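Input (structure):
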C-alpha cells in the first residue's frame, strides 16, 4: 500500500470513529445478459441480427455490445443511431434499458466488407453494463465463423 493510500485510509477510519459512523460497501447489482441472433455473409455483405436479453435478477439501465469482425468493413457506412464505429473492424452499440427477465428490441446491421472474403469471424460480447455484475458471462460472449454462403449462422 502506498503512503498516500495509507494516509487516506487512516483519515477515513479516523473520521468514521470520531463521527460514530461506518461506511459499508454495497454489493453490486447482478444481472445475466445474453445476446442471441444470427450472422450471414454473401457477396461482400454481412448481415447481423441481434437480440439482447437480461435474465435477471437486477435491472440494467444501459449496456454496450461490441461486434468485432476479422475483416475490415468498407468505409462511409451509416450505422443505426444506437451504434458507432470503434474502428474499421469494430462496431459498438447501446442495448437500451434491459429490465430483469425481459428482452429488448432487435438490432439489425447490413454492412459491406472492404473486400469479398470467403469467410470471417465475428466476436460478440458485452463490454459495458452500467456497473451491474454478470455472474454468467458465457451467454453474452460469442465467436461465430461465417462462410460466404448467405446462410444464417446462429449464435
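Output (sequence):
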Amino acid at each position: 500500500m502506498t503512503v498516500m493510500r495509507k494516509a487516506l485510509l487512516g483519515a477515513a477510519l479516523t473520521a468514521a470513529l470520531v463521527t460514530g459512523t461506518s461506511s459499508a460497501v454495497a454489493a453490486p447489482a447482478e444481472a445475466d445478459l445474453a445476446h442471441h441472433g444470427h450472422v450471414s455473409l454473401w457477396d461482400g455483405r454481412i448481415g447481423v441480427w441481434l437480440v439482447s436479453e437480461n435474465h435477471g435478477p437486477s435491472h440494467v439501465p444501459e449496456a454496450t455490445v461490441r461486434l468485432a469482425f476479422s475483416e475490415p468493413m468498407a468505409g462511409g457506412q451509416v450505422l443505426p443511431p444506437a451504434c458507432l464505429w470503434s474502428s474499421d473492424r469494430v462496431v459498438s452499440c447501446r442495448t437500451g434499458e434491459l429490465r430483469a427477465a425481459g428482452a429488448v428490441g432487435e438490432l439489425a446491421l447490413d454492412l459491406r466488407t472492404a473486400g469479398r472474403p470467403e469467410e470471417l469471424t465475428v466476436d460478440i460480447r458485452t463490454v459495458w453494463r452500467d456497473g451491474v455484475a454478470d455472474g454468467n458471462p458465457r451467454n453474452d460472449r460469442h465467436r461465430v465463423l461465417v462462410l460466404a454462403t448467405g446462410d444464417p449462422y446462429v449464435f
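Notes: The longest helix spans residues 3-19. The chain has one domain: 30-154.
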